[in-house]
Write the structure tokens for this entry.
Amino acid sequence: MRIALGQINTTVGDLAGNADLMARTARTAAAGGARVVVFPELSLTGYPPRDLVEKPSFLEGAQQHLARLAAETADLDLTLICGYVGRSEASAGKRATNTAAVVERGRVVFQQNKALLPTYDVFDEMRYFQPAECQSLCQIDGRRVALTICEDAWNDKQFWERRLYRRDPVEELAQAGAEILISINASPYHMGKRELRREIFANTALRYKLPVVYVNQVGGNDSLVFDGSSFAMDAEARVIASGASFREDLVFLDTRAGTGDQHESLPEECDAVYEALALGTRDYIRKCGFERVLIGLSGGIDSSLTAAIAFDAVGRENVVGVGMPGPYSSEGSLTDAHALASNLGIRFEVVQITGIYEGYLAALDPLFAGLGRDVTEENIQARIRGAILMALSNKWRALALTTGNKSELAMGYCTLYGDMCGGLAVISDVPKTLVYELARVANRRHAGAIPESVFTKPPSAELRPNQTDQDTLPPYDLLDRILNAYVEDYQTPRQIAGVLGLAVDYVSKIVNKVDRNEYKRQQAAPGLKVTSKAFGIGRRFPIAQRFSE
């Protein structure tokens, strides 16, 4: 069977555009000699469609554009497999299904509904879809094919210590006589995910002695970044074809010969994270209808990394850096920000905020009589900067990018309506220690654009004299280990303290601060997920609650 893996970047809700993209790709696949072209999960509707699924007009549109896609590819000697939101025929339950459609000669000849609907982390499919009660093999090019949709192939009892579902659709289809497994996916990226996928499907190939074809979506949709990284394995789990990571690709393979294209997939995880952030930023900007971005350049490591990512996302001509020195800003910070902008070749503007800040104090001092200076005055500076960025964003029609990292956001070391102002939090899922590593990746790509002094100076918000982050926060290398254990692994303070050799009270103060700052995170701009547990839709904690670690 000669197959083409159509690793495409779809836009949620763009039914016409997604159908056109698949039709063009199918023609290229047919011209390249493919007999089958396979597209990702919900490729017609985009993933995740979320509450669009609740709209009858959306369901009707999906049906219409599937029919149009079939008609426009009817002249091709090619079987097309794609995902779309179908209609449930059950008398009770949800109206919609997560469906794979098999199209030949202008007709939908087979449909398979998804059986296992995930509800963990960023997924909420049980909210929208009716699960399949049973599944069947389909005949494609004379072969009995087990056609599965993402989670349906992720429940192997020999792989997981504790499975999430009783059923294993792959096992059921293999026992029915499948000769090949084709899995269509919309599997978001996080660090380590690409390796995990290959381990799961290698186990499947070896267990059932089946060739495996895995096709994944690529691109950014809101907070999720999809890496693509599609692949095919023979029955001995040897990788016979692989798609690129973080870009669209069309990969040809021949299951009979056991050969196929092998495209670059960024083996170093730090490089993959950087590329994920650039892709997620680019698609968020493009799919939301923006072209240009604004960044407050402080001369620190976070804003420097964000500027480099923005450069790679939309090009130097579409990035503007804004320096906003205040009464406690060091001369070196402004120099470093200017040097970064010059090295990247982006526009750089400076707005002095000291006079504005003094005006605020003059207006507020009568109301603050008898009260000493504290974090209130520090936050005023941050909020002045936020207001300036948003004014420029409105005037220039440019999207403001926030520059806070995951460590700061976890601890609430950020200012609402200040440095949190913006439309996209590019590095909000990047721990501070990883920020430094990614900045080195940026410098390899951009000939040392980030000055070395940015790496060596102590991190500081520069909101009071001689301030450093470690006046308030633990050292970042220690803090990030605690946060990873608590936020991503749900370990208790006692467990964390035991592993790291720390006092339980010390750890408890940190994790309780994480919990108390949930109200800030729920008002933050959407961020791009690159770790296994990001703040946002995949971590849903109440704000008003009294459980304490």
